[in-house]
Each structure stands twice: as structure tokens, then as C-alpha cells.
Amino acid sequence: MSTKRTLLTKKNILVTGGSGFIGSHLCDALVKEHHVICMDNFSTSTVANIEHLLQNPNFEFINHDITQPFDLESYSELERFKIKFQGVQEIYHLATPISKRHFEDFKIATVLTNSIGTKNVLDVAVANQSKVLYASSSVLYGPRRPDHPYVSETDPCTLDHLTPRGAYDEGKRFSESILQTYADVYSLDVKIARIFRTYGPRMKIYDGNLLPDMINSALDEHDVELTAPEDARISLAYVSDIIDGMIRHMNTSIDVTVVNLGSDQEHYLSSIAASIIKLCDSDSRVRFEPSTMGWNEAGLPDISKARQVLGWLPLVRLEDGLRQMIDYSRSKRRSTISFGS
Amino acid sequence: MPVKPVFDKKNVLVTGGAGFIGSHLCEELLKTSRVICLDNFMTSQESNIDHLLKNPDFEFIRHDISVPFDPEAYPELARFKIKFQGIQEIYHLACPTSAKKFDQYMMQTLYANSVGMKNALDLAVRFQSRVLHTSTSVVYGTRPSDGHQFKEEEYGAVDVLSPRSCYDEGKRFAETCCKTYELVHKIDVRIARVFRTYGPRMPLFDGQMIPDFITNALDGKEMEIYGDESFRTSLIYVTDVVDGLIKIMNAQSNPGPVNLGSDIDIPIVDVANRIMEMTGSTSTIMFKEPLLFITQLGLPNLSKAKEKLGWIPLVTLDDGLKRTIDYTIANKSLLSFRTF
């Protein structure tokens, strides 16, 4: 499918959820070459993530909840992007409430964002004949199966849709189905990136997330408590690698729909904790607590498709990524503390 | 939340009430309740509820559930005194279903299963109504190769990206909406998973096979099977399903999702042959390309329905077929007229 309008200068790109953890890094990368329209309603993200972009003439922020329909041509602040003539070439759809700690508060918002929200974004894509990349999640594959730890794009997605987490897990599934339906009905060029566990700066530091919590404990010289078995292992992809994969995915041909993005390298939680403690110059110790919920790690991504089709693989070494994240946590904690005092 | 006084009969809302199952449900509910029947005739027929329109306890509102519905805005509902009486129960059945015209309704199917479901649940929050959502056996995925019967706890394996995912996955998502509203708004939302159902008022010439078998058998035309001789399915008669739906709604406590269907597996060829015998027809059977939307489906495990609701299918296949044939004969001129 060709874009409806002639391209005058730079591409116009919409990023929903653009002030979130991954979204803001994506805006950082895209704004170097393109016009970026960042849409967010700060339900679980913060303006601090995009503050440094607000002065950039190639960047514009729109405060909007995507569960309400929207028309980009109606925003006067977007006039300089000439959407009427230029159109919107690409849409990265990342918006969904995400909060470990406050998940309960966002359940309804989560089902609505992942149904009506996705619909509204795709309606804008149809109107502008934009390519769409949807940030999906490894949760679709369900929990890890011991006999089959690596999951590939063609594996069945089996999950319980009636758990309290269903709003998110099933919502993500349904969003993928909405994309497929729009592709079938409107011949829309849709891409689905199933993103596995990602870490990096701008992850919320007080939201019950594993790595930020470990870093906080290390910086506070508290025990690093891990509610997991001692031999628990996880895979971690650094956020800039994921951004690189998403942009490559967006630029592939029409027939590449689903791609796993994540790291297929596993690390022992204990060794991650040890690295963090070392990098923080901390004397904290690691303590394992048995979990009442059981240790439920997602499957590992089979990334051969991303390798072959996108020429992509994760590059950032864990230690380098952790260092970036610790620096971020340090500065963030300083500013929080100074604001608080 | 104060419970609204119930003066005489319950007010019951049925979305998709002019559909195949919906219209039978309205009929049954009218014995004890007032029924507001909502439908937009997208894949249903006005004739299904024609005989109910004169009933003072019945009111039909033509409305698309993907648009928010305010029952208090309709003067024709004034006699139901919704302001004081509220709405005690909502049966949510609305969803386009058409095997042959599935393609035409893909977007509407998405809407029904998301926005439509939300609108129904918002009504329930507003009126503190009990909800019964009619889900489907397709949430379990395709017929399992090991032949096991689906239990309600099963996660299901649905292809998220298949061309029919707007329906299959949409129905799963609708269940998730029910669960989420129940958790957040503390409303009582029940789920019935209905397996392949047959009976009078099934749409004709829409790939559903049984009504077409009957019509073609009566006309001495070829009976078409979408698939080959190995096509097997289970079939539940519509009044059994209606009985099950009402039992789920009326159960003391929310039983969680409940399968409603027949666990007897039969080759569809046998059904076609039986119809030929019963109609004394000399038609022949023809095997055609399978349809995307007509698959064999798995079988339900019925122990939960039996134990928690005391529900079992009562109408035998022969009885059900006979009633469906009688209905077809009685309405034949009307039915064949309608298809042109």
C-alpha cells in the first residue's frame, strides 16, 4: 500500500504512550530524523520522561486519552507538521496503563485502552493510511513451559483470560486481533512486536519493578530481597536494543507481521543482583524469600526471525545497561529527595 | 447501593433479542418477566419476534449496542417504570453471527465484543443488574485432536491472528471485560459458553447446514455439507440452551463460566440422512469446500452444568429435528420468500 500523500520533508510519526518508559526512548530515537507526535495521558507515565524533548521543534506532545477518538488535524499545535497535506506515515502504538503497584486502579482503563483505544488509533491509521506497529507483549505466550522454554512467533498463545491480570494479558491478545482484523478489512500495514522483559533508564523506580527495586536496595545498603527460588533466571533486553528492533520492524515489508523482540540470554537473578551491588559500590547482601505465588517467569524469546528478517540482535551488555540504569536511579532519587525536603 | 424496589415483574433486558437464540429466550422470559428486547437486525430477523410485539410485557427497541443505550430515554419503555423499578437482569447475546457473510461484519464483530460488551456492562453498573453474557465454545479453540471434552477451567488455544479472530478472540476478550467489571465494580456477571445449537429460526442459507438440510430435503434438492464425511459435531436444541441460560442467571451464587451444549458427537452425514428419512425425501448429499466459520467444534464437559445447575440436555435429536422440520414446513412459504 502506498502512502496517500506526497512526502514534503520529514515523516510524521505518531507515538501513543510516548511518555512512557519505552515510548520516550522511542521518541528520542525517532525525533533525530522525523517529526514526532507524542500522545499520552500520563495515567502511568510521567512528563519527566519527555521534558527534554518539549523544546525540540520536531517534537510535539498531545495530552490525550486514546479511549476517546481523536483527529490529529484538529490540533493547532500540530499545524507545523502539515498533517493535512503530509499525512501520518507511521504510528507506533504503545499506549496502555502499566503499573505493577497500582494495577488494580487501572483495570478498567486497561481493558478500554486495549480495545477501544486500539480501535481509535487504527481508525486514525486508516484515515491517514499509516503503517502501524503495535507494541505487544510476551505475556501472550503464557507462562514458561519447562519442556519448551523458547517461544517463537508461530507458537500457540495460551493463557487464562479470566485471572485478575486478564485485563492486561487478554487485552493485549485482543489488540492483536483488532490489528489483524483491520489488516484484513482495510489492507492496513500492521506490525506486531512482542516485547519481552526490557530494562533501562526511566523504568519507574518506585513501582514494584524487579530491577529498580534491586537497585534501590543496593543504593540504600539494604538487603536485596528476591522473592524467587535461588536458581531463578531471567532474560533482559536493554531498552535501546528494543527501540532499534521496533524501528527496524516498522521499516520491513508488509508481510512481516509478528516479531519477538527480547533477549534470549538468561542470567541468574543472583548474579544480576551481585552485579548491581558491585556497580553501586554497595555492601548489600542478597536474600532469597520463597514466593507464595510461585515463580512465574515468561518464556524466552526465540529471536531467529528478528535476526533473519530485521538483521537485529540485542547488543548492549548487561553490565553496561545496568550502569546506565543505576546512574538514572541515582539522579532520579536525588531529585526526588531534594523535592521532598 | 440500595436495591431498587421490584413492584411486580422483573425488568429484563435482552440484547440480541431478535436473534435465533435471543428470540427463544425472550419468549421464555415473558412467562415471568417484562422483557426489553434490543437488536439492530444486523444478522437477525424482525420476523423472529413478530409474535411477541403485541405482548404488553414486551418492548422492542431497535438499537446497536455499540452505541451507549439509555433505557430511560425511550418513551415506549415508560410503562416499565425503569426509573423506579430498575433493570434486574441483562442477558447479553448481541453479536453478529453469519457464517457466510462473516467478512462483511468483521468490524461490527470487533465492536460488539468490546464497545458493545462495555455498554452492556455499564448499564449493569448503573442499574446494579445481574448480567448473563452468552459466550461460545470457540473460546476453547478448535476441536482437540485427542478428543477430550472441554472443561470450563481450560485456558483455550485460540489463534490470535486468524481471519476469524475478531469473533473467536473477541469473545474471549468480552469474557475478560465481564471478569474485570465484576472485580472492579462488584457486579454479578455470569458467563454461559454455548456450543452448537439448532432449532427453529436458525438463519437459512447461511452455512448452518441443518436448516438448509431441511429446506432442501423438503424441496428435493441436494443437501450440502461443508466438509467431508468425517465432519462431526454435537448439537443442542435451542430450548435446552434457553433453559440453561435462565438456570445460570437464577443460580443462587455465580457458578463462573458454564458450558451449555450437547456432549454427544455425531457425524453430520447421519443428521442429513435422518432428516431425509423424517421428511421422506429422496435428496442426495453433496460435499462442498469447508467454510471458515463452520468448523467441527469440540465437545463440552457438562459436569459443572449438571452439578451446579441440575441442567442436562432434554430434547433428543429426533425430537429436536422433528420440531425444526415442523416449523420449516409451517413457515415454508415465508422462509423461501425471505431468501430472495
How do the helices and strands follow one another from N- to C-terminus of chain A? EHEEHEHEEHEEHEEEHEEHEEHH
Shape of chain B: globular
The greatest inter-chain interface is formed by:
A-B, 34 and 35 residues
Unreliable parts of chain B:
none
Instruction: Figure out the total of helices of chain A.
Output: 9
Using only CA atoms, what is the Rg of chain A? 20 Å
Give the topology string of chain B: H per helix, E per strand: EHEEHEHEHEEHEEEHEEHEHHH
Count of distinct strands of chain A? 15
Question: What's the level 1 CATH class of chain A?
Answer: Alpha Beta
CATH architecture assignment name of the largest domain in chain B = 3-Layer(aba) Sandwich
The side-by-side strand order for the widest beta sheet of chain A comes to 3-2-1-4-5-7-12
How many domains make up the coordinates of chain B? 2
Give the overall pLDDT of chain A as a whole number.
Answer: 93
| CATH class value of the largest domain in chain B | Alpha Beta
State the end-to-end distance of chain A: 56 Å
The portion of residues assigned to helices of chain A is: 25-40%
Specify the helix fraction band of chain B.
25-40%
Brief description of this entry?
The complex is a heterodimer of chains A (341) and B (340). By secondary structure, chain A is of the alpha/beta class. Chain A has nine helices and 15 strands.
